[in-house]
Amino acid sequence: MEIQEINSRYSELSNSDCCLSCGSAIDHSKAQAGEKCVDLGSGRGNDVLRLAEMVGETGFVYGIDFADGMLEKARKNAAKFNVKNVSFIKSELEDIDIPSGSIDLVISNCTINHAKDKRKVWKEIFRILNPNGRFVVSDIYSMEEVPAEYKNDPVAISECWAGAVTRREYLETVIGTGFKGCDIIEESNPYEKGKIKVSSLTIIGSKKSTCSCCH
Question: Residue 124: which CATH number?
Fold first, then answer.
């Protein structure tokens, strides 16, 4: 039911001008020519097309989404602008249809909070990244535990708030996945969303170096 609600809501939003982001992951991506990139929750494909320009003809970008309407809109946008070095794939976040160790960069914007098993999503990010790979993720976290009545409500989850976890749980999940390098580079003041208060952050990390985001 939860996946159906998300598919339905975001397919309906595919032709709107509604902003669906909560940070600026793409602006901090620093994608390089020739790189292979993934955008988790690629929506209408706007960030995928920006990445495609950054990586050039020798690079490639995969957009991952589950909403049929969003995938259709993204493919139309790519065709409209004659962008060839992209592919949009229907896939759940917990089981990304990308080979292990094949990706240089993963970005995502306000998407992982929808996932039921966030730890598995981060394990998938770790799996598809190559040994020098990195991620830039913008997402929300809740200021306190989401009440049970909303936490399991598929409509509330699809509205991008009831699936949020606390800051501590979010960071522990990222570090527990195996990433050895991470930093929070953006973090908002708390704001009302749905029935709770949340904050937005943008976190970067890699499989190398030291971690400072938990300090």
Answer: 3.40.50.150
Tell me how many domains the chain contains: 1
Q: Are 6 and 157 within 8 A, CB to CB?
A: yes
Residue of 115, 84, 104 lying closest to 6 (CA atoms): 115
199 sits in which H/E element: strand 196-206
AA identity, residue 209: S
Question: Taking the model in full, what pTM does it have?
Answer: 0.89
Mean pLDDT by 10 residues, the chain (215 residues): 56 55 92 99 96 98 95 97 98 96 98 95 98 97 93 82 95 94 95 93 86 51
CA distance 143 to 132: 33
Phi, psi of 147 (to 5 degrees): -55, 140
Q: Domain range holding 100?
A: 2-206
Among residues 181, 193, 88, 91, the alpha carbon closest in space to that of 133 is found at 181
- Lookup: tokens for 158: 């699809």
